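This entry is listed as follows:

___
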Amino acid sequence: MDAMILYPAIDLKSGEVVRLRQGDMAQATVYGTDPAATAKGFQDAGFAWIHVVDLDGAFAGQTVNLQAVEAVLDCVNIPVQLGGGIRNMQGVEGWLKRGISRVILGTAAVRDPDFVKRAAKEFPGKVAVGIDAKGGRVAVEGWAEVSDLASLDLAKRFEDAGIAAIIYTDIGRDGLLKGLDFDGTRTLAEAVSIPVIASGGLAGIEDVKTLLKPKNRAIAGAITGRALYDGRLDPLEAVALTRSVAQ
């Protein structure tokens, strides 16, 4: 993950492609009814990865949008990372066998860190940790509950566990197009050796340019959702920019 990677997001609710505001399921905007077509469009635009979240699964604690995720896997040949409702080894192994390149464990990282460490050891390079924060504290259960655990403390739990990446989301910015939390993400990325991916609030091409500045070199990537769907971020321009800097 030497070059900054931009991950287009496909958030799934009842089989549809949606975006939420600050993680609120009651504030879901539907952007499409064909997740596979959305994924194919991102691949055709030149993105190197796709980020998928089973929103229903995050709240239910188990996979809900199975068919939609499998449809995405069937239509693209670039790597896909998946989060939402994966809480045990059976879920991790099952998704990896189906073709997911990297699973994201969020609630499980708080509730059962030993399981996350076992999964990372058993499947090297295939397990990421999702750290979703409100006011610096980690939220769980689809962001419905906020724990007393600080984001940095959670990240440090997995420092030597072989975690492939940390996806750090500022819930207060998510879906609001206010810009990424550069300072918070950079602080986290500089404090641990695990690659950190920024999420929540990416507003447009200026955010991508800021991510690529030398002072943010510790940030390994970023997830973009609403900016793409609302037309505020041109996918071809964004991909071209990240590639030009990587060369």
Notes: The chain has a mean pLDDT of 93. The first strand starts at residue 5 and ends at 13. Residues 235-246 form the longest helix (12 residues).
